[in-house]
């Protein structure tokens, strides 16, 4: 007898580069304005702000290589980001032990309905309507940290139709990977399968139907997405 009253929800997974195994996703935490130049372009002073996070949903992940332009928006922006995948969790994780909790890394896009996000900001409301919609998190397979280490520097770029739109370096992150993990673990009980989208460099901008987005992070991977 099935103990569930409705069909069991699908468990979102990410492929693992070079493996037949899958990485199950539990939660997705996204840090806001984690590159100084991006904070400035969004009208904020990066030197005065503590870190803050919002969430996407696991089923926002899309591996198809196609991003369907979403409804209720006429201003959808690209944000290229490092994805940090946790292999173990906990609370109050010490900074010096934080990287021990990382299983691997990937490349992701935080697609944003900027107009809806802007309306929510003006009214003092949460951002999820602009951030956590269907297909809003295109991603690559995860690459194990046991193979690539823990990237703390290296180019992070995004091209749109071959033209460079975003360009930065992982060493420009205001809050580094261990700091994000330690901070989050003070406010949440982190778990195996959690993802952290680590922020985007300057150059975010709108996409149009038919655009091809090509993201790259040194030592981590490449992501190609077509806007449908």
Automatic annotation (TrEMBL):
Q: Which GO terms describe its molecular function?
A: acetylpyruvate hydrolase activity; metal ion binding
Q: Which UniProt keyword terms apply here?
A: Hydrolase, Metal-binding, Pyruvate
The record's annotation in InterPro entries points to: Fumarylacetoacetase-like_C, Fumarylacetoacetase_C_sf
Q: Name one Pfam family in it.
A: FAA_hydrolase
Q: Can you give the residue ranges of the Fumarylacetoacetase-like C-terminal domain?
A: 28-227
- Keyword hit for Ribosomal protein: no
Protein name per its UniProtKB record: Fumarylpyruvate hydrolase
- Organism, as annotated: Marivita hallyeonensis
Its lineage opens with: Bacteria, Pseudomonadati, Pseudomonadota, Alphaproteobacteria, Rhodobacterales
């Amino acid at each position: 007898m099935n103990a569930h009253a409705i069909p069991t929800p699908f468990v979102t997974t990410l492929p693992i580069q070079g493996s037949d195994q899958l990485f199950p996703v539990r939660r997705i935490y996204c840090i806001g304005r984690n590159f100084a130049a991006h904070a400035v372009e969004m009208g904020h002073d990066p030197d005065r702000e503590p870190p803050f996070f919002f969430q996407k949903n696991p089923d926002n992940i899309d591996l198809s290589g196609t991003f369907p332009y979403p409804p209720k928006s006429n201003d959808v922006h690209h944000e290229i980001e490092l994805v940090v995948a946790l292999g173990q969790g906990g609370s109050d994780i010490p900074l010096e032990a934080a990287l021990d909790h990382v299983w691997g890394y990937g490349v992701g896009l935080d697609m944003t309905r900027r107009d809806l996000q802007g309306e929510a900001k003006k009214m003092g409301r949460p951002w999820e309507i602009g951030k956590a919609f269907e297909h809003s998190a295109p991603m690559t397979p995860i690459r194990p940290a046991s193979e690539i280490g823990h990237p703390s520097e290296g180019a992070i770029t995004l091209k749109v139709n071959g033209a460079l739109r975003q360009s930065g370096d992982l060493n420009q992150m205001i809050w580094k990977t261990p700091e994000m993990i330690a901070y989050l673990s003070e406010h949440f009980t982190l778990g195996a399968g959690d993802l952290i989208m680590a922020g985007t460099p300057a150059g975010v901008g709108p996409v149009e139907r038919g655009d091809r987005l090509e993201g790259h992070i040194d030592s981590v991977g490449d992501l190609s997405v077509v806007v449908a």
